[in-house]
Amino acid sequence: MAQAQPKMPVEHGVPDPMSTMHPLMKRNYGKWVYHSHPKPGVLMHRAAGGDEIWTVKAGTQRQMDHYTVRKLCDIADRYADGYVRFTTRSNIEFMVADQAKVEPLIQALQKEGFPVGGTANSVSMIAHTQGWLHCDIPATDASGVVKSLMDDLYDEFVKCEMPNRVKLSTSCCEINCGGQADIAIIVQHTKPPKINHDLVANVCERPAVVARCPVAAIRPALVNGRPSLEVDEKKCVCCGACYPPCPPMQINDPEHSKIAIWVGGKNSNARIRPTFHKLVASGLPNNPPRWPEVAEVVKNILRTYKADGRPWERMSDWIERIGWPAFFKKTGLPFTKYHIDDWRGSRYTLNASAHIRF
Amino acid sequence: MTKKMHETPLLDELEKGPWPSFVTGLKRLAQENDMAVDLLGQLEASYRNKVGYWKGGTVGVYGYGAGVIPRFTELKDKDGKAVFPEAAEFHTLRVQPPAGMHYSTDVLRKLCDIWQKRGSGLIAFHGQSGDIMFQGVSTANVQPAFDDLNAIGFDLGGAGAAMRTSMSCVGAARCEMSCYDEQRALRSVINSNLDEMHRPSLPYKFKFKFSGCPNDCVNSIQRSDMATIGTWRDNIRTDEKLARDWYAAHGMEELIDNVVTRCPTKAIRIRRANGEAPPAHVSRVKLDDAQCLEIDNHDCVRCMHCLNVMPGALLPGGERGVSILIGGKGVLKIGSTMGIMVVPFMKLGSDEDFEKLQELARKVLDFFAENALDHERVGETIERIGLANFLEAVDLPVDPNMVLYPRMNPYVRTDDWDEQVEKVRSGQQAA
After folding, report:
1. Which residues pair with B125 in a beta bridge?
2. How far apart (Å, rounded) are the C-alpha atoms in residues A117 and A115?
3. Does the CA dihedral B338-B339-B344-B350 come out positive or negative?
4. What angle separates helix A324-331 from helix A292-308, to the nearest 10 degrees?
5. Which of A230, A246, B118, B405 has the fewest CB atoms found within 10 Å of its own CB?
6. Beta strand pairing status for B320-326 and B340-347?
7. Under 8 Å between Cβ of B234 and B295
8. What is the pLDDT of residues B281-307, one digit of tens each?
9. Which pLDDT band, with edges at 50, 70 and 90, does B253 fall under?
10. Is there a contact between B125 and A90 if contact means CB atoms under 8 Å apart?
């Protein structure tokens, strides 16, 4: 043991942001009273004492090589005041105290290929997960789906032409790490897990796996004389919950892991209470490198919402007004028996009234 | 110096188009490190075969039980050798960002230097839980990379059955809707419970998130076990000049369509300006010399819509604080759940107020540690035992703000109804 014992970590916890915050934001911390949105990608905030700060927002690829991060730093040093922050959707924000710096900053970002936009009633960057790049359980990729879609939705990011803001997410399995969104793109498995019975006994804590199943479809079994697990395939809802704790229960399938589209999720309390997104389409192929079938459905929904939504209506507000029959009619998406919820609480999703729409 | 690039015809497609390309970034890294060369190789195989090739494992840093996400390749040849050996170990370090995700370029460059030297050079700002994700490092370099990051003031985030890295919105740093010091609240709750993050011993993950107002820009209600959301108790404040400016620019149709009729509780009315003082619970602001906008603050649910449409003209009240909601989470296992209101209002301004928030957070963590089943989120525990039992366990008083409507069925034992009534009455007297 010639190697020295590593030193104990310093448990810093969450760093204090004050030392890395734009000085004008620090000075006016908690004192802001007004904001305006002069153009897509630009915000102006004013503090009670009259200080103004201008924010320019740009899209990134989120998974950034250090050269990209350094390029953004160079832009921040040369055209902004040397400070940036990131939003929850991985957009980068540059803050400047001088309005005259806004246009040169925008030009510098655009010249280096960073789209300026993502504010207010635009389609913002897609919240996403890790996918094939780094996750241990993904049925599809994340960064590639996002890159393909954002290429298609580029104009909607740099313009503000939607009724209200649009937040998208993608998730590479049904756990949905991408989260709730106005439009969410989520893997939907269609076949039960394929079990490698030779490995289960050594790899999986069987009672824990049994307990994970939301529909109690998994039970311990002896297979070829070895302890394993079996799945009641009639009960199985193909959610994949058993796969993370038990990798020999392979749920991902290049052919049968499909992609579903969900709409109308929002976390803001503005107007109607926060909502979860709802299933509108499924069965789309997992088709790298550009997932064109998924893009077509997403773009169709966005086109319909853009044409039909009224100002300030989020996707959920729009659908609340026009009703689900009109949503399916206007988008041309078929309404099937699979759209009728039968999970716990589903009684409250049914129309217990004589209200109908034509 | 570096390995020859693999053919990547599928990934090459992702270099086309106007959005910044992560593939182009990976190729830049591949000019200087072999890990990126082989990462591209494996990723291309995933694109070709539509299969992921990573498995987990156990990798960590000295003194901590979480914060590193281990990844080992499963793409092996017939002899069990990694097809892409330079990326056979491709771990991620989850690192907690400064609260509110503020960076100076100086700090960002230091982070880049460390990751260029120790890892693949690939960094995500940020992961879905709010970590800076330093992606791609060999097992041998995990400790040195962490030591370097730790030396400049950064700490690992959460993973597994532990308290997770937290997020707050930009809040007080640059938003007029901010109702409390989000960054202080985040740091006081997280930094007083770091043991739960670094040495996991909870039944499952536990997430705190902090949003400055009910617009909830960090999605605390759907993505956190304990959501702290800014709100106010008194009247919406008004600014006559900005209200007049807004009305002059937008006019009556937009006022009706976008403000009045979008109020979810019909708390807004347009009234003739008659010069009288409004009732104490009404906010009134002139739109022009003839008309004013009135908000009945008893009817207002603090949804934020009218404040969003008329920035500055309408602002959160002066008596600010937070609502606390418990139990938000994703799909597994019972289906997605939203956070539930358990503290309609608590002040959050003084040192004592922040201590109270910390105490509540600790109480909820203790409740979770002692009562949740294995792999159960606190929202699921509450679903299993009922909200009333949770409230009793953490000593929070019941409040009609916690329900949409009261019970709709008679299946409940009410032996001590009178005692409960007495408890509520004496509680009201105490308050």
Report:
1. B132
2. 6
3. negative
4. 120
5. B405
6. antiparallel
7. no
8. 999 999 999 999 999 999 999 999 999
9. very high
10. yes
Fill in the amino acid letter for B340. I
Mutate to test the interface with A, among B89, B128, B137 (most CBs of A within 10 A): B128
Identify the residue among B103, B126, B155, B237 best suited for mutation to test binding to A, counting A beta carbons within 10 A and taking the highest.
B103
SS (H, E, C) A34-50: EEEEEECCEEEEEECCC
Distance CA(B15)–CA(B2), nearest Å, equals 21
- Mutation target to probe the A interface, by most A beta carbons within 10 A, among B102, B152, B187 is B102
Closest-CA residue of chain B to A65: B122
Partners of A65 on chain B (C-beta within 8 Å) are 25-26, 28-29, 121-123
Chain A residues inside the 8 Å CB shell of B305: 270-271, 312
Closest CB from A20, A34, A276 relative to B102? A20
Q: What is the pTM of this model?
A: 0.97
ipTM of the complex model: 0.96
* Residue A290: C-alpha distances to residues A142, A151, A257, B224, B392 (Å): 11, 10, 16, 32, 52
- For residue A284, what is the DSSP state? E
CB atoms within 10 A of CB A209: 22
Which residues of chain A carry a pLDDT beneath 50?
none
Q: What is the pLDDT of residue A2?
A: 58
3-state secondary structure of A204: coil
* pLDDT tens figures, B166-225: 999 999 999 999 999 999 999 999 999 999 999 999 999 999 999 999 999 999 999 999
pLDDT for res B431: 54
In terms of DSSP H, where are the helices of chain A? 23-27, 66-79, 102-111, 143-152, 154-158, 197-203, 206-212, 292-308, 315-322, 324-331
Burial state string for B45-66 with b = 16 or more CB within 10 A and e = fewer than 16: bbbeebbbbbeeeebbbebbbb
A–B: how many Cβ contacts below 8 A?
A: 364
Q: Is A174 on the interface with B (CB under 8 A)?
A: yes
